[in-house]
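Entry:
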Amino acid sequence: MRSFLDTLYRVSGGLAAVFTVGVLVAVVLSIATRQLGVHIGGLDAYAGYSMAAAGFLALAHTFKSGEHIRVTLVLSALPAKGGLRLDIFALLVACVIAGNLCWFSIKLVLDSYAYNDISTSDDATPLWIPQLTMAVGTVIFFIAVIDETLRRFQGKPESQSEETHYE
């Protein structure tokens, strides 16, 4: 299971990188076509969709790599048991927040699909399609937060971070 989850986080991070390149391609193409006097409708919208996809798909990989911003000043000032308890409490709060984000992201996709929402831009893309990457990213992030919370309950240190170790 550990191998599957780590692969899931890496694949999610890899997809985020692909969508980041998609932002670059859309922006460069938009600039180039504007200089040539050609209009390709929706390029700005696709750059935005790619940027949102990159951000949400990167959440889990960034979290599991220990790269999210954390305030460790209080944790490091506490004794090991106190720091572990505070860390578990923070992770439980993160589970609630990530769970809500996950729930409402999925609900947004389902509502957009049910109401046939489309982009108001030139592309007229059904909005559930780009919103799907947000929902997938938040689901994977929720899994990562639960995974990290369970690891901490087992007394294991952060996955990739070397800042805080509990013994």
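Residues 2-153 form one domain.
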